[in-house]
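Journal club prep — side note

Before the paper discussion, L.F. wants everyone to see what a predicted structure for a comparable chain looks like in token form. Sequence:
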Amino acid sequence: MRLRVDVLPTEELAYADVVLVVDVIRATTTAACFLEAGAEALYLTAGLEAARAFKDEDVVLSGEVGGLKPPGFDLGNSPREALEAPVGGKIVVMSTTNGTRAAHAAARSAKHVLLASLYNAHAAARLARELATEEVAILCAGKEGRAGLDDLYTAGVLAEYLGLMGEVEPEDGARIALAVKRAYQDPLEALSLSAAAAALRGVGLEADVPFCAQVAKSAAVPVLAGRVGEALIFKRAQPGQGGAP
């Protein structure tokens, strides 16, 4: 099975099989937390206005601009906040600067799109391995068009675990991600050195970084289940879905 890592989403990228989308600080971590908190589904939009169009009493708007909650939104993009949010049985509409856009890039061509982070790394990798027939690709969201150390490190963790489950053929991007993972013994060190972490420190949200650095704490894997308007619908993988726990 081919193992591929793309350091940034671009218009030219195309996917033949399974894609794990990574925006570890913070969108894909937060997405798993919303599902853990009981959200019925996540609607990911590529922009704020598309998210606002879904506003309803049974819908929760979550997002960020510059790390902070946008005007008119119910919640920001903090995984700590998401885990405690009263979202049981509700739809959460998410729009973030990097992560939700990367999910849209993957969804243009992939057969399966999963949202992965350190927080759900092992569950996401297991599901990707079960679903894939020829390739698992890991798409890093990066930060505003530039590669992110945090996402590359996470891609390395995912790639390493995928390799432990069976033989893989890593492409160059995957080899780079594996090398980044080996360069840091502590996930928190790698994440803390990233531009994404620095941006959170600048707005007083640095407590989200240690949360995002937790590895394999969740079995919640958001999986693309459909579309509505401009939004991608993600739901929690069900038991037995590609080997989901």
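L.F.'s comment for the group: Residues 113 and 150 are 20 Å apart (CA to CA). Keep this in mind when we get to the figures.
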